[in-house]
Amino acid sequence: MFRWPPWVARMWSLVVLVLSLGQLAGSFYVPSVGPQYFTQGQSVPLYVNKVTSDQTPLPYAYYDLEFVCRPDQLKRVWLNLGEVLRGDRITESNYQLTAGENQTCEVLCTKVIQPDDALQAKELIKKNYQAEWIVDNLPGATTYRVRDHSVKTYEPGFPLGFYNKFTDVAYLHNHVALHILYEPVPDTQHPGTPSRMSIVGFEVYPLSVQNNQVGCPNLTVESPPRQPIGNVVDREIAVTYSYSVTWVQDTTVSWRNRWDRYLSMGYTSVHWYSIVNSVFVSILLAGIVAVIMLRVLNRDLAMYSEEDLREDQLETIGWKLLHGDVFRPPSLGGLLAPLLGNGVQLLFMAGTTTLLAALGILSPSYRGGLLSVALVLYVLMGITSGYWSARMYKVWRGTAWLKNALITGFLVPGIFFIAVAGVNLFIWSSNSSSAIPFGTFFVLSATWFGISAPLVVLGAFFGNRQETISHPVRTNQIPRQIPPQPWYLRAPISLFITGAVPFGVIFVEMFFMLKSIWQDKYYYMFGFMVLVGLILIITVIEITVVIIYFQLCSENHRWWWRSFIFGGSSAIFIFLYSMFYFFTRLSVTHFVPALAFTVYSLLAAFAYFLCFGSVAFFSTYWFIRKIFQAVKLD
Ligand SMILES: *[C@@H]1O[C@H](CO)[C@@H](O)[C@H](O)[C@H]1NC(C)=O
Ligand SMILES: *[C@@H]1O[C@H](CO)[C@@H](O)[C@H](O)[C@H]1NC(C)=O
């Protein structure tokens, strides 16, 4: 057998270790914790990030656009893993800002735009692409006034241009008026030094002006002629980019709550409506479960001991006849155990991330933080994955625990990995910044092989050493015949019920999540998300337990796989709803963004399926062990 020379293995482990540690450390990189003070006259860097659209899911790096002014030397900013995966590409720009100094008109450059690039500009403007610029970690915002014009709110980003769809002409925003809101911070220790300030707001007012010679908009003219782009296809055009800067003192906001304007969008009543709706569904189901439990624990037990069962009572006590079969290992248990392990892993990851976010630890000012933390947690939770997979594998009398651990560590992550890599092959070709760079891809694989997979095996090792979970009844040699089932317990109907009810609990919240993921809006209602998540878990457990109980009553003892599949069945609805969102809210005309959206939605639905399938599975397992313990047969 071929063996690696030992130095190859040693080098490889070293590479993996360094990369993985670097990634772990980098993922927790937080840009700046306290306020940054600028003294009067100090230069303030302006960074450009990316352009995004609410109509199509492909972002582009701002400096990858051929029609904008670029500095000669691009100075990239170091990004954390979450930012890279989100498609952020932050680069220092050549806009010269000076703290506290107004600039009325500065010319950035005159750019000669080739016909092809002008066409690209028109395409992006038509798709409503918004540019994200950053000053002092604040994204440049378009300002809105809602509710009797008194409350100012920010929407991050500003449009690259605007499009007149009647004349089919796109106009390029080549002038920006930057308003920097600041809060003066007196330096009490050193009186007499130049005044200091901290930046509390960054507003961008873009303008399209055709004024190639002078370079700046003639603001005395009522409506200056605008700069069209992408209409003349046969020759290049020269466009002058310019900007003005106004420093405005704003004492209504302080540095601590400067993000509030980005976050106060006032949809709260909708969230509450969704929660009331969800609680209602959940309580209804809880009632059904309570009735069942009461029957099981009181009336049924009493009747069973009387031993003169009437035929019509069999319907509710049928499940007791299954004592010799109910814990019979499922077919394909070697597949179910790894899926359960991965479900537990995803659940712990999602739960912890949401909790951290709800506690305000992952605020939007920590760009990319949510994704970085989620990834690190996913890797660390590999240990729970291996553990639960091994325990269930042992219950089903599996013997090759290591093989099971390897399947757990590689099957589901492998599916995710191959799907993401496949989509990226296409995204690379489209030049979008959401394509995962090769280096990042390498780091991700190294983390998977180097940390995640060993943790799964470690977890499986511990899980395998635990006692087998005990069952209150013994399994017979010969499987019992399953009688014909009533129509309402057929698989498609059960699937529909167990899928539709939990989906009804979450679809309102899901709309906001889709919006924040695909349209790059800040999602900040994590408190609501925790509430809805808890209600969802309760609902999934209740509906699955009810359906499986009815199924046991009609003497069908095949419940292992069913509880898993029923629990996760809302995934179908979630995927369909994502596609509905795709067709109604986005306007994607190209293949690559459509493919990316579909594949990522499928993966999200699959992750949901694993999570909630496992929740339902373990709850049903617990429930069945309890009811069979209660009857104490023989
Ligand atoms: C800059 O312009 C704003 C708005 O016109 C004005 O309030 C402010 O005093 C100006 N600042 C300086 C330093 O001139
Ligand atoms: C700006 O417009 C006014 C009014 O049309 C005109 O008098 C002035 O010369 C223009 N200034 C420049 C710099 O073009």
From TrEMBL:
Subcellular location: Golgi apparatus; Membrane
GO cellular component terms attached to this protein's record: Golgi apparatus; membrane
Main location: Golgi
A biological-process GO annotation: protein localization to membrane
InterPro entries in the cross-refs: EMP70 (IPR004240)
Highest taxon, organism lineage: Eukaryota
Pfam assignment, any one: EMP70
Stretch forming the signal peptide: 1-27
Membrane topology: Multi-pass membrane protein
Transmembrane stretches, start-end: 272-294, 346-363, 369-389, 401-428, 440-462, 487-512, 524-552, 564-583, 595-624
Keywords: Golgi apparatus, Membrane, Signal, Transmembrane, Transmembrane helix
Family affiliation: Belongs to the nonaspanin (TM9SF) (TC 9.A.2) family.
Protein name listed in UniProt: Transmembrane 9 superfamily member
Organism: Dispira parvispora
Biological classification of the source: Eukaryota, Fungi, Fungi incertae sedis, Zoopagomycota, Kickxellomycotina
